[in-house]
Amino acid sequence: MNAVATALWNPIVAKEYRTRMRTWRSPVAITVYIVLLGGIGWAVFSALSFSQSGSVNQSGNGGMGTQMFTFLVLLQVALLAFITPALTAGAISGERERQTIDLLFVTPIAPFSIIWGKLLASMSFIVLLLVISVPIFSLVFLFGGIELDQVAECFLVTAVTAMTLGFLGVAFSSLFRRTLAATVASYGAAFVLLVGTLGYGLLFPTSVDPNATSAPAPPAITFIGPAIPLLTIATGQPVSGYGYRFDGGNNGGQFLTTSGGSCFSTGNGTVCKGGPAGIFQGPAGTTIPSGLFKNWQYWQASVVMQLVLCAIALVFAAYLLPPVRRIRLGPRVE
Amino acid sequence: MIAVEDVTKVYGRRAALDHVTFEVPEREIFGFVGPNGAGKTTTLRILAALLEPTSGKAFIAGCDVTAQRTRVHEKIGYMPDFFGVYDQLTLEEYLDFYAACYRQPKARRRKVVDELLALVGMTERRNQQVDTLSRGLKQRACLARALVHDPAVLLLDEPASGLDPRARVEMREILKELQGMGKTIVISSHILPELTDLCTMIGIIDHGRMRATGPVKDVIAGLSTARRLRIGVLGDREAALAVLQPLPPIRHVAAVNGSIEAEYDGDESTAAAILAALTSSGIKVSSFAAVDDGLEDAFMKATSESVG
Q1: Contacts of A108 in chain B (CB under 8 A)
Q2: pLDDT digits (tens, 9 = 90+) for A50-106
Q3: CA A276 – CA B142 distance, rounded (Å)
Q4: Domains, chain B, ordered by start
């Protein structure tokens, strides 16, 4: 076996697959996941159908498709935020509690491989959940308004988000001796990633000079979370008014009048007419108009930042795991 | 094969090991005895490269346990005092998993698992879930696990604890068989009589300090300050006591459970002289035997000296 194959398929992975799929928890988790995604999706579809009854034109169906898709991707990422920490928070601490960790440490398997094996097994289960949700998502194509690349991008962001939560879960599992503490910390991290980053954009928006020449973008930290990228992919436009404010206190940029001209929002952003050159333009499309990730897609920034977070969590977990550390960050404590 | 050189391990202000030094030659069974908290598990964990000594060195087959951990892990089979097993795995899968962890090819793993199951007498349980095994069977399964890569050295921390007498005897037989296969075994245990039968060498540790180490007989002899005789007499025991008490080699003599026990300084010829003194005084001696103080007494002496 070459190095890549060895890394991807170590004995931990095979053992985890076996033990995970032999319990009742896995089929129950799959069933609950599908029932919730499908059931709540159907409920939303019914509600949207009811609210749009009488409107039978094509654009109405397309709008419903977009709304359905937006709801489903957000619901999916929320469900995975509940499932992933449960899968990974006990990965290492569970071995400690079960008193099997020393038996692994005396084998030639490197601590990194132990972590990698645990992650790979957990992430495979997440991929399984994503794959079995595809038929539900395919239903939105009946209504139109959603392209295949949007679905692919949303699944990528969702998968990377689940991966990030998984890596954080394993890192906490290495840090804490008890699974309960690791689980609480992992759910806390999931809350921060999904809700905290979103709240950051509301509480600490980017201050925009009304005379700026480029359109504003929310703070870069808000892209770590999946909500904004998923919304921009699903709707094909930025989240209007989120994450920036004008120094004059005029929030959002929905409508702005400047001396000698006027700006107004359209479906594609803010359009300014008249007035001096260099007048403020609002965000448009799904690219980030300014800041650290200027001209990137929102989802691209999110994926890159989350992958960086994964790498940090992986290094952290691999550092914490071995009983005898080769590298010490601080003075030796006995 | 195993060398521990001046190893100290300090936790906070407490020294779990205090300049411990001992050696175990190849193919020996080294019994590591000491009261709870004496430092046995700490020593074994250092030898298993699971713990770093604060100072000192330890070597397994010439490999430094601190600097060459991977090589050390290839040479040792380690069985901790407390261990768990995985749910949802059969015994065969359990052993196969650890054999795979030691990078054994799949074809070889099957053979190794068969051989190990036969060695520990669990072939008929190969399809039983390992978490449903009894304590004794789990101990045997764990011993088999420690052998999946055919290590030269076995580090066994209390392998017989919690086992019933039959399981202990079976475990002892397996260990003897392993010694016959050329393994060097370090075994920590509280069950001292068993170690006397099993071990060729012994180390007594207390409060983190090695009190005595060497071949079992030497350690016992070294810790014994006097020899003991158990003497059975027909008729008047008081007369026998009166004969024994004034004899110069006798340190102490007393009637114990229908016989007489006498502590004396000297060797076998001194014992013969004592017997001659009794018979020449007209005492009818029905039995006359040297009492083997054994490991238990040596252990008590070694540890009581440290307490005192």
Answers
A1: 70, 73-74, 101-103
A2: 877 655 554 556 678 888 899 999 999 999 999 999 999 999 999 999 999 999 999
A3: 81
A4: 2-218 (3.40.50.300), 225-292 (3.30.70.100)
